[in-house]
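Handout, page 2. Input:
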Amino acid sequence: MITPDGEALVRDHTVYSCVMGSRAFGLATQSSDTDRRGVFLAPTPLFWRFDKPPTHIEGPADEQFSWELERFCELALRANPNVLECLHSPLVERIDATGRELLSLRGAFLSRRAHGTFVRYAMGQRRKLEADVRQYGAPRWKHAMHLLRLLTAGRDLLRTGELTIDVGAARAELLAVKRGEVAWPEVERRMNRLAGENDAAAAASPLPAEPDRARVEDFLIRTRRASALAAASGSAG
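Output:
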């Protein structure tokens, strides 16, 4: 009998996993953690019960988080920044045929919805930084660095239609922000400029207005069907 044990789902049914965070962004230092993100395909028979498999699982390793395939696709279609960036990590650790097809669909998830989600997420983080400045006199500089990085990635996605998460030549100036070497008013000025550039890029973006939901749904249905057939074949054997 298949049981929806979280650790077993991640161990035995992961279709794609990668390293995210500073190591994927090109911002790692000697003290950086290794953040791992993954996608698992829960066997289709688990969905035939009253108790469904989990939509996400933390662990089993430290700094590890995985989504069930359907939940991952749902969030990616909504242009969730964390999930879209996961699809574009340059540090892939594990992938099978289903994972490779998922990566081949990266373009189907991209749309001008990213304008709202990237900027909205960044502005939410900015309000937290501003609260820190009011309370403590300074923001959490690491968070300020990543906010600038996210706004830059969103702007470039809207301008080019492609999501690149490695910061490249911007590494030095971003790490200077992380170290608190850039005054907060200057960081605010950069945030304001990048937010405006996101707005301008959205108006002329080559991205479609909406993602290709039908193409992603076809992939999900085929994958679920193949999982059900594999389970039936195993039972027959």
